[in-house]
């Protein structure tokens, strides 16, 4: 199969990955530019503390919960493209509204609604990618898609810093929100839901994708013969392990992303434009990390290993960056190390649910894991903001983030090991089981 895949045209990589990347570049920009707005004077203009700024950054993830499961199911049922089209319209308009808020409550409401509007996009895109890329390619496909986060961060820093330096923080929200609406010109004409829908796809490539993915799914022998309830899904121990890992990871990721501009300002005493450019360097490391770990994971098939290494690496670099604050450039070097590990586990992590769960369980699991796990995106910014408000220093808050990353590493070690060529069974309740899909590719 590996030799066959090398002889097949690669149109799927050029037509499917880029629109997904572009969509989420702007989505991630719209959710994280609040960090630059805070460093650029939003907190003073609205009269809010660092704690409230952290809450405003994190409340997004409570809204993010609502459409996680529907987004995953839309992709499973073939409505992903239309779902994301509507999502783009909604979050673009709400992102623009960020620039018009006048008080704390308006800011919190708009940020919450932005989370609702964006909430289904991530699991929906992951579902679409799973329809296009066989298991042996999915780690790399996810890595290329998740690379959008690094690219978004590289763009957000200089762009937000420049807009704020020449005008103010309000225009950073407005301009970047308008970019969202322009995404429709990319998404609608270029995106195809499945290989069967793509007129540009060659017969050889279509047959390869459809037949390979069908064969992989046939390994399960039987799909669920019962209607699986949420209660039954929540009874699966591995669901809770994955939620725990993702929650701890998001605590670290968004704690880092939200407060990086402030940390760099404290560390270097640069202006907001300079901070914007300095913030790009860790995210260049993120691109490298995603590419390296995504490829290593696909080549070895050892998904668990390449989730655990980035988690422990991120924790160590974040701890040392904080401990070495007295040495500006050494601390900055470890912040760059954080960037290398920042998203490296993500592409590998999202290959695990299809290996453990089938059909409807897999679609729902993406939403459940993403929705509950992303609540860590609230806790991370809040922890650091609270410590800045109460102590005037971010160090203690960052050490708490490190503890969460270490906890995520330990939970990862508790995931099941599946030997190549064997399948595993996921127990639902006490009496029934669901065979794992593509379990042979997880170690």
Automatic annotation (TrEMBL):
Q: Name one Pfam family in it.
A: MFS_1
* Compartments reported by the entry: Cell membrane
Q: Where is the signal peptide?
A: none
* PROSITE patterns, per the entry: MFS (PS50850)
| Primary location | membrane
For this UniProt record, give its keywords in alphabetical order, as a comma-separated list. Membrane, Transmembrane, Transmembrane helix, Transport
Q: Which CDD domains match?
A: MFS_ExuT_GudP_like (cd17319)
Reading the lineage from the top rank, the first entry is Bacteria
Topological relation to the membrane, as annotated: Multi-pass membrane protein
Q: Which InterPro entries match?
A: MFS (IPR011701), MFS_dom (IPR020846), MFS_trans_sf (IPR036259), Sugar_P_transporter (IPR000849)
Residues annotated as transmembrane: 12-29, 45-67, 79-100, 112-133, 145-165, 171-190, 239-260, 272-293, 305-323, 329-352, 364-384, 396-415
Which positions fall inside the Major facilitator superfamily (MFS) profile domain? 16-420
List the residue ranges forming a coiled coil, or say none. none
Q: What is this protein called?
A: MFS family permease
Annotated source species: Neobacillus ginsengisoli
